[in-house]
Design goal:
The protein is mostly helical. The protein has one domain. It has 10 helices and no strands. Helix 2 crosses helix 5.
């Protein structure tokens, strides 16, 4: 076996782990930035970052009765979260990044795509029907952000900014269902679904797309 073949096999066998890890890191960064905007201390930053990174996946696993939870089975994530918060205290203090609401939205968009697709795939693998799988995938993606915003005493942005968020996650997650029905390789449907969701969310932010609102 050549070195390139070995690398490809390693990527295939560990693809789901890499995929979920990217989503956790993206949501962790969004939680970290939001906590930094609120000027929380290290403990507060770690808690908010953890809520953002693990909240949606934990609720999904509870509903699917999956044990142990991802972050319990892989305890190193706790140390990664703490390390990120410690590093951020130095990095952000030197003003390498402006702590704006927009800064939080970019990693959040990445996490939205990855967690929507990944959550849907996990639900399908657990034998859930397509609609339930897509709903669980959407919940996986949005609950972490809701927990993050509630923890810093904000009304969750998903409820008040009127930009499509859950709608995008719900729509893009059907690509995973399509791929499953057509027997696509898991990695193909996951990355395609995540890419479409991320692209749509970024366009919604840049172009200011709005959902219809109630008019009194």
């Amino acid at each position: 076996m050549t070195q390139s073949q070995g690398s490809i096999e390693w990527l295939v066998s560990n693809g789901n782990l890499i995929f979920e890890s990217l989503g956790i890191l993206a949501f962790a960064v969004s939680g970290l930035l939001e906590a930094a905007r609120k000027k929380l201390d290290l403990v507060g930053m770690s808690m908010v970052t953890g809520f953002a990174a693990f909240g949606g996946g934990t609720l999904r696993d509870i509903l699917l009765d999956r044990r142990p939870f991802f972050w319990v089975q892989n305890q190193y994530w706790i140390f990664i979260i703490i390390a990120l918060c410690l590093l951020s205290l130095v990095f952000l203090r030197r003003r390498h990044l402006a702590l704006t609401e927009r800064a939080v939205q970019w990693p959040d968009a990445i996490g939205l795509g990855i967690f929507s697709a990944g959550g849907t795939q996990i639900a399908l693998s657990a034998g859930q029907p397509p609609m339930i799988a897509v709903i669980l995938g959407t919940m996986t993606a949005i609950v972490g952000g809701i927990a993050r915003d509630v923890a810093v005493a904000e009304i969750p942005q998903v409820f008040i900014d009127h930009r499509p968020y859950a709608v995008i996650a719900f729509t893009g997650s059907w690509i995973v269902v399509l791929g499953d029905s057509l027997a696509w390789p898991n990695f193909a449907s996951l990355w395609l679904s995540a890419g479409v969701i991320i692209l749509l969310r970024v366009l919604a932010i840049l172009r200011g797309w709005k959902l219809p609102t109630w008019r009194l």
